[in-house]
User: Which sequence fits this backbone?
């Protein structure tokens, strides 16, 4: 009964408000994890339980049935849920954007070797180099090359398709695009089932560490500034628990600032490496966080004015999703506006609400 | 029920092999055609579904492959064998919520009548629940065995220290547990710990 949390808080004045939140094991889950570990949730009077989830579908379904009060989500997910794409219509509210960028296009080493040696050094790599060898490779194999994104209605799917098509490749005809969960991307490349993928870090760096692939383009090259992960709750939760919502927003904004403090980045990688969080070597996670090449200091961003839900950014995202028919063509901007509650973000920092 | 499920092609994806085997056997007994995934490493699920063309897929909720499975229909809107989450319009939301609570999610080919798949979902829910009950019972049995061993050891200590018989030692323990409002096994553990400490 997530919507009762505020009334429970009143009934137990001494107690903290219990909130359950979900995250995916990705580098950009950092704000939720840091808010918990640094005690920012607790300082806001929240007793947060964080739950690592195995799939985006799990996050969606658990929020849907109320097993989670809120979660880290791919930016288009609240919109997709509000529209009832793939699940029953569930009005959702995006409270803030947690991060921009953070994904890589990573291609198999064997594919990179087949591309002209000089071109392989170019960063970001243009898919035109891939297009040049595509007909011959496809003919030799007798089947289409396979690329993956980590979810259907996602920034990843959009960025992968944008990158391919910018190089003259038609993602619907010249090769096959499927969905593979992030943790399996590297194994599927190793098994020869996949030629490339678009996924959030650290999965591109993990492919590089395993020697099976390399990040060749960054989401900051393809769709700079596009909202990547957001923090969202069900609209009815936002309506019934305004105090809790404000507290969550403040704690997560504070955590974002911590994550973007350069001195904290190596420590952040160490923390995320924990077996119950990402469970990968901290050096692999540190690569993108500490801007080792090919990454740049602006690749991961956890703090900035873009954290406030922004209609313009939502509109740009919708245009991208429509370009690849990831949402119905009739989807209007009103649907986007419904999910974005900049007013709730502002309320969290207004004088009478601020802690 | 038997008639409803007859000849339905069902794929079961479950890392828990014992539970998977149980579910598959139960489905087969209902007349389903149970499709078996190839041994590991399992190819991307989107591919597997294209090859096996199931009418329905039962998948443990915490399997990361759910994302691969349910996006298939978005990418290939016309493709048969591209299953959709049983949350779909016309679905029984309460039934699906119940399934998720039991830890199973189910997908069906587009166009398949929800009523036809509902018994399948019920069967899966029952099976997943039975499995967690079994697990809970096993854990309880193991705990009670461990408790009994503790109590036996504590009883032996009391018998030795007080020079009394088994029955009297047990009465002492039980009275102590009642006075302190603690479980017998907790009292037993305390006695064992203290005795070990003092005998060093």
Assistant:
């Amino acid at each position: 009964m997530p919507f009762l949390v505020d009334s429970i808080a009143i009934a137990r004045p001494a107690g903290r408000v219990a909130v359950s939140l979900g995250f995916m094991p990705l580098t950009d889950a950092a704000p939720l994890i840091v808010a918990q570990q640094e005690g920012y949730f607790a300082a806001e009077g929240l007793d947060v339980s964080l739950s690592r989830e195995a799939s985006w579908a799990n996050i969606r379904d658990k929020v849907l049935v109320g097993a989670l009060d809120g979660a880290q989500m791919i930016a288009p997910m609240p919109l997709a849920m509000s529209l009832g794409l793939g699940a029953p219509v569930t009005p959702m509210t995006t409270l803030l954007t947690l991060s921009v960028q953070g994904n890589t296009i990573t291609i198999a080493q064997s594919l990179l070797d087949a591309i002209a040696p000089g071109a392989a050094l170019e960063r970001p790599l243009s898919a035109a180099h891939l297009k040049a060898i595509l007909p011959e490779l496809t003919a030799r194999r007798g089947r289409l090359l396979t690329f993956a994104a980590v979810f259907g209605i996602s920034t990843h799917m959009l960025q992968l398709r944008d990158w391919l098509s910018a190089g003259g490749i038609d993602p619907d005809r010249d090769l096959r695009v499927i969905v593979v969960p992030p943790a399996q991307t590297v194994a599927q490349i190793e098994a020869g089932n996949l030629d490339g993928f678009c996924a959030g870090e650290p999965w591109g760096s993990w492919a590089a560490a395993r020697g099976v692939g390399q990040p060749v383009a960054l989401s900051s090259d393809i769709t700079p500034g596009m909202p990547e992960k957001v923090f969202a709750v069900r609209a009815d939760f936002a309506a019934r628990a305004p105090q809790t919502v404000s507290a969550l927003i403040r704690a997560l904004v504070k955590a974002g600032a911590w994550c973007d403090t350069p001195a904290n980045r190596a420590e952040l990688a160490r923390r995320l490496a924990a077996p119950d969080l990402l469970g990968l070597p901290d050096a692999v996670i540190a690569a993108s966080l500490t801007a080792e090449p090919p990454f740049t200091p602006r690749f991961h961003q956890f703090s900035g004015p873009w954290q406030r839900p922004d209609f313009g950014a939502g509109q740009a995202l919708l245009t991208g999703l429509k370009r690849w028919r990831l949402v119905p063509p009739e989807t209007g901007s009103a649907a986007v506006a419904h999910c974005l509650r900049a007013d709730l973000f502002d309320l969290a920092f207004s004088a009478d609400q601020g802690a | 029920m038997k008639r409803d499920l007859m000849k339905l092609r069902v794929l079961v994806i479950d890392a828990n092999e014992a539970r998977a085997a149980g579910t598959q056997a139960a489905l087969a007994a209902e007349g389903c055609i149970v499709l078996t995934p190839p041994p590991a490493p399992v190819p991307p699920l989107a591919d597997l579904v294209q090859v096996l063309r199931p009418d329905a897929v039962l998948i443990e909720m915490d399997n990361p492959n759910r994302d691969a499975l349910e996006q298939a229909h978005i990418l290939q809107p016309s493709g048969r064998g591209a299953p959709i989450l049983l949350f779909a319009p016309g679905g029984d939301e309460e039934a699906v919520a119940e399934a998720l609570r039991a830890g199973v999610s189910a997908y069906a080919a587009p166009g398949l009548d929800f009523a036809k798949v509902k018994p399948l979902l019920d069967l899966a829910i029952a099976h997943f629940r039975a499995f967690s009950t079994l697990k809970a019972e096993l854990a309880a049995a193991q705990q009670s065995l461990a408790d009994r061993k503790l109590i036996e050891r504590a009883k032996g200590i009391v018998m030795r220290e007080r020079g009394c018989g088994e029955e009297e030692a047990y009465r002492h323990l039980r009275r102590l547990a009642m006075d302190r409002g603690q479980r017998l096994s907790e009292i037993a553990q305390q006695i064992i710990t203290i005795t070990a400490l003092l005998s060093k």
